[in-house]
Structures are given as C-alpha cells and as structure tokens.
C-alpha cells in the first residue's frame, strides 16, 4: 500500500500535466487587437507610442464602421440598444447586401 500511493500520485500528476499541455487557447479579440496595434506602432517611442496605441485600441473594427446609416436609423427608431441593436443592424446589413446582389 505504501508503494501504491506514490505511484498513483505520480500517475495522476503525469496524466493531468499531459492533458493540460494540449490546452492551447486562441487569443481573445482584445489580445489580437493589441498585437496588431503593437505591430502597427513599429518604432514609435514614448508619448508618441502611447498616443498611437490609445487611438488604435479605441478604434472600432472595420465591419462596425461600415454600417448603413439606414440600418442605424432603423435601430434608433426602434430604440434598440446593446445586443439587440447589434443583431438588428447585422440582419439589416445582410438584407441590404442580398437586395443589392445581382439576380441570376
């Protein structure tokens, strides 16, 4: 029994270590944005770099900037906010894109 307990503990430790070694997580959206801003900052130093990084990190994603004024107005008229507003705008944009696509 005295020999079995240390072997069991060692086996569990090795088993859990191997299981966690495969847990490679994708970077979050914020981490990806930080990496791209950091790369774009290049050789900037000091206050210039701080200002650039601040502006870069505050910038909206490209697809959010490309929303239709009509979709924005529609969401505002319905007094939508948060996830409901985002969902409405996304559907509105998809509908506009489908309507603008040439029919075969």
What keywords describe this structure?
mainly alpha, 0% strand, 104 residues, extended, 73% helix
Summarize the structure.
The protein is 73% helix and 0% strand.
Characterization of the model:
- The chain is mainly alpha-helical and 104 residues long.
- It folds into two domains: 27-59, no CATH class; 63-104.
- It is 73% helix and 0% strand.
- It is built from six helices and no strands.
- It has helices at 4-21, 29-41, 46-58, 62-65, 69-77, 82-100.
- Helix 2 packs antiparallel against helix 3 (46-58).
- The termini are far apart.
Q: CA-to-CA gap between the ends?
A: 77 Å
The chain-level mean pLDDT equals 77
User: What's the Cα radius of gyration?
Assistant: 25 Å
Give the topology string: H per helix, E per strand. Answer: HHHHHH
**Proportion of strand residues:** under 5%
- Principal-axes geometry comes out as extended
Helix content estimate: over 70%
Taken together, the total number of domains comes to 2
Which stretches are low in confidence, meaning pLDDT under 50 for 5 or more residues running? none
Helix count, per DSSP?
Answer: 6
Count of strand segments: 0
Question: What profile does the largest beta sheet have?
Answer: none
Alpha-beta content class = mainly alpha
């Amino acid at each position: 029994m005295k020999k079995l307990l240390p072997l069991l503990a060692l086996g569990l430790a090795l088993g859990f270590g191997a299981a966690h070694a495969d847990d490679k997580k994708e970077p979050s959206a914020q981490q990806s944005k930080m990496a791209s801003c950091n790369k774009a900052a290049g050789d900037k130093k000091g206050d210039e770099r701080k200002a650039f990084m601040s502006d870069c990190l505050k910038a909206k994603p490209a697809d959010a900037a490309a929303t239709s004024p009509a979709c924005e107005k529609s969401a505002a008229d319905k007094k939508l906010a948060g996830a409901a507003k985002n969902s409405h705008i996304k559907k509105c944009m998809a509908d506009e894109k489908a309507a603008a696509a040439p029919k075969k």
